[in-house]
Amino acid sequence: MFEKTAPLKALEPVPGTRIWPGLLSRQSQEALLATLRGQIVENPLYQPTMPKTGKPFSVSMTNFGDLGWVSDRTGYRYEELHPTTGRPWPPIPGGLQALWGTLTGYAAPPEACLVNYYGRHAKMGLHQDRDEKPLNAPVLSVSLGATAIFRLGGLERKGPTQSFKLASGDVMMLSGPSRLRFHGIDRVLPGTSTLLEKGGRINLTLRRVTDPDL
Ligand code: MD6
Ligand code: FE
To answer: What kind and span of H or E run contains 75?
Structure first.
């Protein structure tokens, strides 16, 4: 998934928030993309809706893994089946599972890999990732395609935030004291990557959902 020679050197703007710029080589990004494309017919992107309001997300989604994160009028939760096809999600690509092991050091494997696709005008509001049981397990994300402006806040919705660019091949982790920080994607910068021919951005987020019997 990443070169053995690649330095595993992360930026840590605040404790527990780590960014590995360009950790995945172009070749690894293309291989990961090919794996995603190979699954996208059986495991299509769909447009989730917001709890209560039923307003559609601007981001389309699918998942890999035993569990997938879904949102509809009922709320946010993890499900074993794709909401539109009724089929189980495909397994998490091996390279991503290995990346999780190397970077998180968490003793149990990830159970969910949320795939977010951002077209030109998509964004994601400030949120916490808190639908998972073990909050001592990090959340690890891989970005592909156009560069995004990632906003990182604190443990409360209000308060100061800082912004970072996440480019294709960058890996990000929220762990420890940053695990419940608010964060979101303000926008995707057009023309910043040639990985996806039609532009846009993909973010893959790996999570442990249930408590492992350690
Ligand atoms: C995105 N990422 O990059 C949205 N959450 O498109 C997330 O919401 C996220 O990147 C938790 C940990 C890392 C992330
Ligand atoms: Fe998140």
So the answer is: strand 75-79
* Angle separating helix axes 94-104 and 26-39, nearest 10 degrees: 130
Please state the domain count of the chain. 1
**Ligand 1 centroid, distance to 189 Cα (angstroms):** 16
Expressed as residue numbers, the domain containing 38 is 11-207
Q: Does 186 score more than 60 pLDDT?
A: yes
CATH at residue 184: 2.60.120.590
pLDDT in tens, 97-132: 999 999 999 999 999 999 999 999 999 999 999 999
Cα 128 to ligand 2 centroid, rounded to whole Å: 6
Q: Which of 127, 134, 131 is nearest to 175 (CA)?
A: 134
Any idea what the Cα angle at residue 18 is, between residues 179 and 47, rounded to 5°? 65
Whether residue 36 has its Cβ less than 6 Å from ligand 1: no
Question: pTM to 2 decimals?
Answer: 0.96
Q: How far apart are CA 132 and CA 111, in angstroms?
A: 10
Q: Closest residue (by CA) to atom 11 of ligand 1?
A: 139
pLDDT digits (tens, 9 = 90+) for 131-163: 999 999 999 999 999 999 999 999 999 999 999
